[in-house]
Amino acid sequence: MNKFMFNHEPAYFTPLEFDRLITFLHDQGASDITIQSGENVIADIQGRLYRVTVRKLTQQEASDLINHIYGANATAQVQSGTDLDTSYQVTLAEKVFRYRVNITACQLQGYNGLQVTLRTITANPPAIKDMGLDETLQKSLQILKGVVVISGATGSGKSTLLASLIANFLEKPDSNLKVLTYESPIEYVYDNIVKPSSVISQSEIPKHLPSFSMGVRNALRRKPGLILVGEARDKPTLEAVIEATLTGHPVYTTVHSNGVVDSFRRMVNLFSAEERQARLYDLIETVQAIVWQVLVPTVDGLRTPLREYLVMTDTIREQLYQVSADNINIFLKEALAKYGKPLIHEVKEKLSRGIISEQIANKFISYKGD
User: Fold this and answer.
1) Which Pfam families match (predicted)?
2) Which pLDDT belongs to residue 368?
3) Which of 35, 46, 52, 85 is 20–30 Å from 212 (CA)?
4) Is residue 162 domain-shared with residue 269, that is, in the same domain?
5) Which helix (H) or strand (E) holds 54?
């Protein structure tokens, strides 16, 4: 028996018993918990997987948990072929833990099993001063209108950076903002943030509203002061984001991409060939800044973000208006090098300060062709 076994294992796991197990595993430092019908509960602790229950769970136990986390009939939705993403908060003995949750059906011993994956997330957003933003970038991300795009791969810290920006707005005594967020799932909450003059309402997609695009259109009926859209992943969502910004609302969103230039290209390419030139003009007018980031190991065993960014100025916009959608990449590469901060600059800075190793730096120097 390993040291991480749950010593108070019940004969049947009710949702409350699962909460007790999750609390126990949080205290053991688990970053990832897998709860699956027909299997022991498995926890990822410091990169190693441990079976933490003696007994394998029944289908009914997994089903009860899923319906508790997501709501009635969630099991039926999953077994019909829809995986669910949501968040879950455990409050037990004055402790509050938050998890990002995925619920998926799986084949198990000839029948449709169920798997719940819980990934630890920090309940409170980090302070913006801890985000490592240089002064120019931090000021440029505090917009009154238009759209800020935070891009990167999954796990690059996009949601964390956005949460710190939102918290910063909420904490200011003179913000006077109604902040509306549409996320999938809700990761950070702002219950412990002092809000002198602002209010925030968070909606989860598709739990509270069916899609991000519907979320943005919902926001426009609620007189928002600031809108956060978890991801501009498709044409309807990006159209809604553009509509919101053209009507004078500040919007913050994310894009999965491989760099600042790729972020702009991906947004343009969401539209058909016939629409691209017109939509390119809309993006030129509305995009205020694009930030791309990746998290890398530091020499002391932690992680740090490497960022590149381009803040849109009138000079850049005037030049972009002369560019066709087909040639946008070439110009943006030149604009990033001349007016922005390419990733290679950040890599060399953090290498010279001893924050990252030469091995890590060389990966990005080679990747960017420098």
Assistant:
1) T2SSE
2) 52
3) 35
4) yes
5) none
d(Cα 142, Cα 156) in Å, to the nearest integer? 21
Residue 142 CA to residue 170 CA, distance in Å, equals 12
Cα separation, 83 vs 107, in Å, equals 14
Domain of 165, in residue numbers:
128-367
Q: Are the C-beta atoms of residues 66 and 116 closer than 8 Å to each other?
A: yes
Residue-level pLDDT at 69: 93
Q: What is the three-class DSSP state of 341?
A: strand
- Give kind and range of the element (H or E) at residue 74: helix 74-79
Do 115 and 35 contact (CB within 8 A), yes or no? Answer: yes
Residue written as tokens 């409170």?
A: 124
Is residue 370 over pLDDT 60?
no
Taking the CA atoms of residue 314, residue 276, residue 184 and residue 208 in that order, the dihedral angle to the nearest 10 degrees is 100
| Radius of gyration, alpha carbons of the chain | 22
Report the alpha-carbon distance of residue 197 to residue 175 in Å, rounded. 6
Does residue 351 share a domain with residue 260? Answer: yes
Which residue has 């007016």 as its token pair? 339
CATH for 79? 3.30.450.90
- Token output for 274: 């016939």
pLDDT at 173: 96
How does residue 189 score in pLDDT terms, banded at 50, 70 and 90? confident
Which CATH number is 245's domain given? 3.40.50.300
pLDDT tens digits for 34-73? 999 999 999 998 778 999 999 999 999 999 999 999 988 8
pLDDT at 89: 87
Answer yes or no: are the C-beta atoms of 43 and 52 closer than 8 Å: yes
For 54-58, the CB contacts below 8 A with 24+ separation are 54/5, 54/9, 55/9, 57/13, 58/12
Do 173 and 51 lie in one domain? The reply is: no
